Fold these 2 entries.
Entry 1:
Amino acid sequence: MFIRPDWPAPEGIVAFTTTKLGGISKGDFESLNLSLDVGDDPLDVKKNRKVIEKELPRGTKIKWLRQEHGGVVTKADSIDLDRADASWTDQIGWACAIQTADCLPVLFCDIYSNYIAAAHVGWRGLLCDILGNLIMEAPISSARMMAWLGPRIGPNEFEVGEKVMDEISCWILNKGGSPGHFFHDHSYRQNYYLADLALLAKFAMSVAGISKIYDSGYCSYSQSQMFFSHRRDSGRTGRMATVIALRS
């Protein structure tokens, strides 16, 4: 039901990604849907959220974001802003959370267990520099940070058209990279390409100064028994959550 990051985080970190298993939602949202914005029964979602709250230190509040595929970063321990695609905190008692169903969730922590963060990364968010913005806003040096990449659409499934490829390519070039490293020709769809979302995120983080990057390797699209997938399920599906918190 839960996937724990395989990374050398300190003991003061609690982190996990949910799968689609272990909840009570029905139909297209079966079973552990954690989003209130996809058409599921709100009472079922709230009960599902109670399931993951039990995995966190007692009294921890989860910062649920209204994700917009942008570059806005907020503090998890602030009630002022929830329209954002990344959050961070250095306070015990708050958890950063990201909801996904093909986009990439990225968790961050520092080696001294004083800082945690989570980012929602799709191609639009990349172009808005959501990862660079989050790293820049962090109250610690990027040299102290490590990152973990959760389940997302894999490089054999992430189709993009020419226009999107051109936009991403310009972003890569502006950061000093080589676009050809991140795309492959589609085997049967003309004017479409396969993009590597995780590799693009790793590139963005390395440019921003993070070298300790760990990857779950899970593909939400192809592993249908474990994960929701917006593309695979034609938009009628639930959301997983990737969550991180500090404990005393």
Entry 2:
Amino acid sequence: MSDILHVEDITQAHKIFGIAKPKHPLVSVIQHKDIQLGETFHQFRYTLGMYYIANKNDGQGSIRYGRSSYDFQEGSIIFAKPGQVMSYDGHQPTAPETGWTLLFHPDLIRKSELGKIIEQYSFFAYDITEALHLSDVEKRSLDEVLAKIEKEYQQNIDRHSQKLIIANIQLLLDYCTRYYDRQFYTRTNLNKDILAKFENLLTTYYSNENQLISGVPSVYYCGQQLNISPKYLSDLLKKETGKNAKAHIDDFLIEKAKNRLLSSADSVGEIAYALGYEYSQHFSKIFKAKTGMSPSEYRNSN
């Protein structure tokens, strides 16, 4: 499975899925029961030049991107943004699948307000195993929005069409944001366990003096160690504590810096280096932003 197939537009996606030509060049709602995948499709990795939202309720096979594979559960949704490498692991289904896929090209939203804020929908950068799981009521709400998008581009397109299509895509994304908030809330015990593991990871990292070799731990590194995507880790911590992962790392380091400033005669530069900062100016800037004082001012005030 070494080949990568680059799927750049809606028309090409329809051809690969074995369905009729799209009604709109930049957006499509594909019903899974209509898809006829080629026999060799599962042998390829592929990238999409589009945003991808899929709700799959049954059938065989799984979707993979990054290092993870995900077998859809009933009422679950995954998201991918342009450029992510994906693959289909499985074989031709023996029975029609239910569910849908929404594809929309970046050109559709490029000049719109949604185009300006699309990165705020961080679930497009979640790992595939961090899918959104829907209740029946939530699923019906999304199905209704999808029906409006589909109806809008299937009728005669006029000067209002694109605005209404984009508005409904944003409505769908806002619903997904709400449902992810609900999912974070209902998994609070699991979230607290991840928070404890995250804090222990930082403690162990500095106990082993890994910072002297690898520097300040990044959110990406922490996510890798916890088997969580960086965006999902940050969003989970934000929902649980009000602070994202980067803020937690900074707070952890500031506390260590405070102790070092008051318990040693080390210079600010030496303390910055001991904490893993490449430049002491960067450390001083973060310290002042967090405490309102420079490291030297903090030391002299206590």
